[in-house]
Amino acid sequence: MWRKFRIAVLLLILLIVAANTWFDRLYSTDWSNPLSVAIVPANGDGSATAERYVRQLTADAFQPIETFFAEEGMEYGIALDRPVRVLLGSQVRDLPPMIEPGTGRLGIMLWSLRARYWAWRIDGPPGTEVKLFVLYHDPRQTPALQHSVGMQKGLFGIVHVFADRTMAGSNDTVIAHELLHTLGATDKYGPDNLPRLPDGYAEPDLQPLYPQSFAELMGGRIPVSARQAEIPESLDQVVIGPTTAAEIGWAQ
Ligand SMILES: [Zn+2]
Question: How many whole angstroms from 44 Cα to the centroid of ligand 1?
Answer without folding.
Answer: 20
